[in-house]
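Tutorial sheet, problem 5. The two components below are modelled jointly, 675 residues in total.
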Amino acid sequence: MNRAPSSARWWFLAHSWLALPVWAFLFFVCLTGSIATVSQEIVWLADPAVRANPPAADAEMLGYDAILAVIAREHPEAVVRRISRPVKSMFAWTVQAEYPDTSLVNHYVNPYTGHIQGSEPEGFSFRQFIRALHGWLLVPFKEGVSPGWYAVSLLSLPLLGSLVTGLVVYKRFWRGFFRPRLRIDRGSRVFWGDLHRLAGIWSIPFILIMAVTGLWFLIQGVLRHADIELPSTSPALPLILSRDDVPQAQPGGQVARIGLDRAAQIMRDTFPDVDASFFSLGESAFSPIRVVGQAASWPLLTESVWINPYSGRVEFARSIANRSGLEIFTQSMRPLHAGDFVGLGLKLVYFVCGVLLTAMVGSGLLIWTKRTAKATAAALKGRQREGDESIDAPLPASLAPPEGNAPARWWKRWRFHLSALLLILPVAWLPHYLAQEKPAAKTGLGQRVAAEFEVGPWSVTLGEWRVEPPKHHDDEYDKVFTLAVCQACIPQVKAAYLRVGRPRGDVRTSGELFSGSPYRRFANVQIPADVRPDADLWLTLEGWDGTRHRAAIPLVLASPATAQWADERSR
Amino acid sequence: MKKGYCVFAGLLMICSQQVLAHGYEMFGDCIRQDAKTIRCTGGVNGKPLPGLRIDVLSDDDAILVRGRLDADGAFSFDTPAVPFYVLIEAKPGLVVEIDDWEID
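Model answer (structure tokens):
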């Protein structure tokens, strides 16, 4: 007869102790997560430049080519990289363009008037900051892993545990839906207890979503850490065009490309119910145009087409139907966590639920200070006490003015607040984060400009992205170099390649393809393990008319760190 | 010989992570089946990839044999009478070269 209440008591204690030791940290994560949910809308409120105000009620939106034409007219040196707009939007189009100094600038273009309402260099953004603060405490990722990511995602375990144990101990919890109770005239302990239960009841689906998606983030981190890839239906090859699919121009001529309006039409032809919300214009002559829109059949995910920009042929279409069930599940986790797949209404629901969850964590602590310690002591002594009765019980002995020596008193007073020490992490990493997000930190050819030289008629600058020896991945060594071709050469140069050692005559042997923008291209070049320190890098530039020019760059000039590494290995 | 391939994201701060996350690694191998025939296989990320173009070229880059990998990701050809190399290109920059002296 006593078994059931005893079991309930232990469930109750488990519920109490799950979040207690980490309450401060959990509170912080819930709070920042709530803000992150509406961070874009906060920017909308604060910055009129990002709003899409129509000049008249019946105003029609401009086409995508018209928006590109505005950028081309007002910023002729800009190379547009991508255009995007949030789902079901009250936002202006964000046109991201790169400039000759390699700076990336976001232009906010009114979709009705084509007016560039504002421009700001890519760098610190409130939205990314609050997301990084919430998601990984600003602790940088190294090889895809951040301790901050683990610390945050591990919270999914007490969150899930709290939900399950909470539903067990809260008998007939569903009554809270129909007869909500929030007593404000019975003292603070009753108020916080009622609030905790009420918020919990109304947040059950939200807490479950946060716990499950958070658990997935934890699993994702472990998989990434262990270098384990889940089965994928992604194409076996990168989505770039084959060499034969890129036309060759007449000497001095240009190759025609389709416009974005045409690309949007191809998207509609492929996915009739999908509105384009993102265009990527490509990273090399071999890049398709990628058009992305929210899937009609499963709004959590997007559907995309990769379009040959010369012929308009659809190279690949990514639909919901050609994803596996596992992919649909795992890829749905992030939008389900962020709530950014319907529009403002759902975001506000997420925000309110997030604030409720934050309040639950806080109220949970207050309840503990008034109840749990005593209940624990009672349970350990085998005594029983009905849960609600203890709400109004006097303060437990453990919360009486601490006795004993100073360290013991300190421990007793502060033990459950120690998780707040984890917040030292974002404070410590904040200067690093801000330095990394400075626009100036995102420009340039890397840590070292290696050489400026002529390759046939074209002048180029080679950069070393990081001054360091090659990195070891999957039994190979590779190193990132950057390249800028002169502005006048840009229309003539179709592609650039880099490799260690002299290529053969066939252009296909030229090595790694540079990709990025004409002002800054990247190539991750494989460095042979037995490379000699006096080896040469060979740069190949291929013109749109089929001409080809090559130049050798001594490794010691391109990357002294790599030459030294090679020298040490050869000894 | 293997060649790495990577796709860079626009976000440069995660550039090096992208290298890891979206790496494509080409592989190719040729063996001498008998005095006359050479059989080559190729693919990406350890998986044979049918349909990839494979060329056998002379030292002066003239194409001697042109073909595509079969359903097993393999292609056989008669040993050329002149020095040669084998080239399999999956995509621009994603290439494997095999010299005749590397073939056992």
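Marking note: Chain B touches chain A at residues 2-8, 10, 12-17, 19-25, 44-45, 47, 49, 57, 60-61, 85, 87, 89-95, 97 (CB under 8 Å). Full credit if you identified this.
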